[in-house]
Amino acid sequence: MKTFEELMQLLQPKSDYDQLRKRCRNLWNSYSPEKQDLVFRRIEEKKKRKEFVDFNPLFAIEKNSAPACQQTLTYADYYRQYGTTEEKDGWKRIYLKEQQKTIYVKD
Hints:
This protein has five helices and three strands.
């Protein structure tokens, strides 16, 4: 079983989100050990595949605890599928500043 501190190490939230730490801990502690493991594994796998994980740790925990996982497309795959870079069909364009690339995500 992963601890809250291990989760925070995995997420590596910026100091801008320090005020959310208590809310994140409360949410994490409200989950069963099985659900905590699921959330941790989902985030870990996304990071390994260099997929988008929300920068806000509270949102990252919530989104990865939902029954359905978030879908991700690269900029090229999205353009190939839709023939445009405009947001369609529930897809949201996100610019990953640190990686200097654009991806599209859909819940």
